[in-house]
Amino acid sequence: MSSRQSQETHDKLPIRMLHDRVLVRTDIPEGERRSTGGILIPATAAVGKRLAWAEVVAVGQNVRTVEPGDRVLFDPEDRAEVEVRGVDYVLMRERDLHAVAAGRLEDAEGTTGLYL
User: Fold this and answer.
1) Residue 111 within a domain
2) Which keywords does this chain's UniProt record carry (predicted)?
3) Is residue 74 part of a domain?
4) Both ends of the chain: CA-CA distance in Å?
5) Which of 5, 18, 27, 46 has its CA 20 to 30 A from that of 63?
6) What's the CA gap between 39 and 16, in Å, rounded?
7) What residue ranges in 1-110 does DSSP mark as E strands?
């Protein structure tokens, strides 16, 4: 089997997250962006510490508070990036998440009453 055939075989294998790991797809735009007032902010501009939102793609069997499809808030400086089938993701532990946004939380008690 050639190395190319071997790589294609590995690319088709199913992936299961382990333990308390969460795999997310980030919403962080690359390059320049616009403020809510319409001001263009160049990619080289220094930005203070800012948390980012991402969509949960997969979770390990010990994850209790998030499900695939939820949006989560995390610190982009504390992340491990991985490429799976040509798409970039961020891998983190459940304890590294700061907040969860999901429709299923509307009926849960103890919510803050904040809406996104």
Assistant:
1) no
2) Chaperone
3) yes
4) 51
5) 27
6) 42
7) 21-26, 33-34, 40-41, 52-59, 71-74, 80-84, 87-93, 97-101
